[in-house]
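## Example record

The block below lists the input lines for one assembly entry, exactly as stored, with component labels intact.
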Amino acid sequence: MIGVTAASVHLPDTDLGPVLTELAGPGGWPESLAGTACPPERAATLLGRRGLLMKEPATRLALCATHRALGLAPGPVPPPDRDPGTAVVAAVNLGNVETVADLARTVEREGYRAASPLTAPNASSNVVATTVARWFGFGGANLQVCSGAMAGADALVLAVLLLRAGRARRVALVGAEPADPVAADLRREGGAVNPRAGAACVVLTASGDGVPLELSDGEDREASIVVGPAGVDLVARWGDYYGAQDVVSLALAYHLTAAGVAASVTVRTGGRTAVLGGANAGS
Amino acid sequence: MTVRVVASSLRTCFGTGDQTFEALLRGENGVGPLRHGSADRLGVERGYHILDDGPSRAGRWLAGCAADAFARSRADPVRERVIAIVGTGLGELAAVEDWALGGAVPDPEHLHYGGVLRAVLPGVTDVITLTGACSAGGHALALAQDLLELGEADVVLACAVDGMTRSMLAMIGRVAAEPTSRVRPFDADRTGVLLGEGAAAVALTRTERPGPALASVLATGLSCDARHETAPDVAGIAEAMRDALSRAARVASEVDVVVAHGTGTALNDPVESAALREVLLEPGGSPLVTAVKGAVGHLSGTAALVNVDVAIRCLRDGVVPAVTGLETVLPEGDGIRFVLGGPVEAAPRLVQTEAFGFGGANAVSLLEAA
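Predicted structure tokens for the full assembly:
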């Protein structure tokens, strides 16, 4: 059985309050969703200073979301022991587009000697997934999905696949997108009305612990809360997080079920349905 | 459980998979003047290019390979669930760079390959694009096998594609002491890496599906070094090798041939040699080791599936090409049986292919004859 044992929503410019009050009633917020989300430029307040030099906003947001999902106190993480049983699946499309655009302009204008070698890791898009792995010592399979708006849903499918195939006993599913000028222009070109920067993290295991998660292609089971199409419209309420959107929805669903606000929550993602909680909730 | 390769389609600077393998056997290299951006700005003068022009080059190569592998797999999407997973290192970031330099703004939904592949794979259920640096294709292959073994799909196309970006070329130029003229994997006098262009698609099915097959994939091992931003790490790479052997229920001494990653860089080749020694040689293995980047360049996320295509041909034809560009074996490679000078006739039963990506994402596959 696949279970979700922890999650975080890290959306710096978004007030979660109105949606949570609607769903959980005044004062019924899951405690785990309390607190403010630092923006990427102030990530050091949560993560500590070390290692953040030249880290792009999406990477910083992904680190913040993972840090919070793991329940770590603010401050630097001690050098982790490498854990080959934990995999990372990141859903990120536009993490390095600003770096790549800047590099192209710099090189065209001044030549390659003007490019800092410190940006080298950011020339490769998978930098978000590998940085999360290094920061927290996750030595299992390392995937970054970039299927556009479907990235979060695809990443969830692959996270479950890694667990079912015995490639990992725990997966950190992380969604992150930036809203730097390059990313925001691209997203508006793609039709986004309200592109935002944010991240979320959902920790999945195959151990039977946590809130049960089931995936299906078809109709969802009866659930008191539905997130996504014909349910709580998080894009309209919280903003457009593009490839991270479905991970944000899953993280919210986890918090609501884990806190007992609802016995089960259905998340409608791009083409698939995920149900958290349900018959086995709380077991 | 093993899965079967029912089709493999490749596009490199030499052309098709047949043409690429023939060039490897002849010891040719496909390097030429850099055709992406300007050499003086990038600090890179050479590249392994596909000599075509026009828009959406990478998408066209990928579509061509995927359509070919799909047709030859005889997949029937009415009865069979077909999924495509595309691994790429640089993806369509070149379109973002073109925009930054005055071109048109791309639609973000054109920065992945869902649309490209749905257009040529009628009835495909899902198309998933992964960005995974230089081992992306190996990750696609691993997930393809998982999907088949768990009954989530009946036919999976593990695909990969890569062109070049100015940003990656500039980083290669920035760290090179002087511009590299060709890639020389595992050579004592290697001078660094050059990029190549290409695409690949491997069609996989479960063993019980009737019809001919090219080879079997026993397993792909995955790991992440979780150690350094760009430098490879022996422990992480060795773990991916051991994971592949363990998942395939094979031992080191059974590996007959290794199609290595071999980038010709200061960092990769000694580390890869150390991992080969630790995992395969020390327990008693003595495989022949070849590598293709001296011939076709480093195809980024496509590199893993180039190695897989070459492995399939080694199994089928009983011949292992030499490492193009390797003349004097690096000191750390002492004792490793690199194929030197010309191809070697062999009858390999088990072939290991390797790909290691930026950030330490590693994929190692084991293949045998069908």
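The two ends of chain B are 13 Å apart (CA to CA). The domain at 215-369 of chain B is CATH 3.40.47.10 (Peroxisomal Thiolase; Chain A, domain 1).
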